[in-house]
């Protein structure tokens, strides 16, 4: 009977949490004056929206503006911008993975604290706390804000842009990796520990392989995010898709905008297909 | 220096629960001993205490005369390299290949880079040694299979192969036949006994199955409620001593088995 009373109390608690979440959502919407009627555009706005979306169904194949002699064809320009977008994202992802895996190890509770004893537990606990703090700092600042900071510090620098993308991504990967590792069943890890394996060997060869399908899935998702952020870097002057989207949009060349948007869509879809195929093979 | 595995007045407590109390045990090099008792008697705790995965609250555990509670983390790691452990749940990495699981048994003897090489690009001699051990446990053809694609019995053999690949001086086995059928259970115990004898490995195995314990092990250590009830040669165990560890008044499967064993002993003495 005590068990039933406990389960009922827990269920009641969950219900109240759900009610509190919904109530706070409604309260926030009211205080922000979010009314559905505001979504109806004005006369001028409606015309712009209609024109913009009409190009979605009939994207252009050539430039809408007059371009100088020797300018690359629109499709080639879009592909080149996509290539730059991928390069920035890939470089950032490479850095993020190195940072994420390293910090993920240092911020794993089970590896830094649970499996250690004596003075190594104290040292491990200190490193764990510092790593957690670093991760929180890295991911609490958005990549675009990092980009603004680096732009102010170094000007248009490709290295600055890559680091700006990599910093929050590495922080998020480290947090997710450490949680995935901590949630991985520990039987095999205990067996390896009992056979004299070191914590770093247990992390790399016992826990990481078990968490690998989830780690890969999340890494691919973050690569998608990096692609989108890399595209947006164009708004700051880098030669990624965002640069051409912004330029075309400002000149009201919506047909060109859609060409670049569809290129971005295809990039993300390709990454999704690629990750799906890899995950299927690892499952 | 004293050789073998020795427990002196070992007691283990988990908060208010006393899991082991005043346990004394000495295993000579190459000896094979079965640890019997009901569930919750303290068999698993005792095995975990032997390799310092559980620290004794009182007493001490000595491996070749070395007190495990008084050595540095590095020395403990070295000591553990010489102690193989076959876990009840097998504790394999399901999505690794058989060869990788077997090789992981020797991680303690390898550096980070060396371990990575063994797991990802094993040298020819490493592969050969794994193949030889898998041949001895009868699943050599599965060397490159994913471990979770094997049957329960085959996975059990992978766990045995991993422990043997570690080249331990001592082997602790916690109910290693819990997930296989009776016929395979007998074959597995026989195989383990033979392999340990060939390699002069000290074997301490916890078993529920009294018949297998008495058939294959010359020495029995019986536990009840964390205490050693008897520790003697199997041939000298008296029926009345069984009553002290197994509640024969209950009609549980274990009690049935204990009664069966008692009948066999009675027959022998009668």
What can you tell me about this protein's structure?
With 283 residues, chain A is mainly α. Helix content of chain A is 80%, strand content 0%. Chain A has helices spanning 2-31, 43-57, 74-106, 109-114, 119-140, 143-154, 158-183, 187-194, 199-233, 241-250, 254-282. The two termini of chain A are 42 Å apart. In chain B, 40% of the residues lie in helices and 23% in strands. In chain B, α6 (152-165) packs parallel to α7 (182-199). Chain B has 2 domains: 27-54 and 66-82 and 170-270, Rossmann fold (3-Layer(aba) Sandwich); 91-167, no CATH class. Chain B has helices at residues 43-50, 73-81, 98-103, 112-120, 124-137, 152-165, 182-199, 210-216, 239-245, 253-269; strands at residues 5-14, 17-27, 32-36, 58-63, 66-67, 83-86, 170-174, 202-207, 219-224, 227-233. Chain B contains 10 helices and 10 strands. The chains are: A mainly alpha (283), B alpha/beta (270). At the A-B interface, α8 and α9 of A face α2, β6 and α4 of B.
SSE layout and pairings?
The complex is a heterodimer of chains A (283) and B (270).
Chain A: H1 2-31, H2 43-57, H3 74-106, H4 109-114, H5 119-140, H6 143-154, H7 158-183, H8 187-194, H9 199-233, H10 241-250, H11 254-282
Helix pairs in contact in A: 3-7, 3-9, 3-10, 3-11, 5-7, 6-7, 7-9, 8-9, 9-11, 10-11
Chain B: E1 5-14, E2 17-27, E3 32-36, H1 43-50, E4 58-63, E5 66-67, H2 73-81, E6 83-86, H3 98-103, H4 112-120, H5 124-137, H6 152-165, E7 170-174, H7 182-199, E8 202-207, H8 210-216, E9 219-224, E10 227-233, H9 239-245, H10 253-269
Parallel strand pairs in B: 3-8, 3-9, 6-7, 7-8
Antiparallel strand pairs in B: 1-2, 1-4, 4-5, 9-10
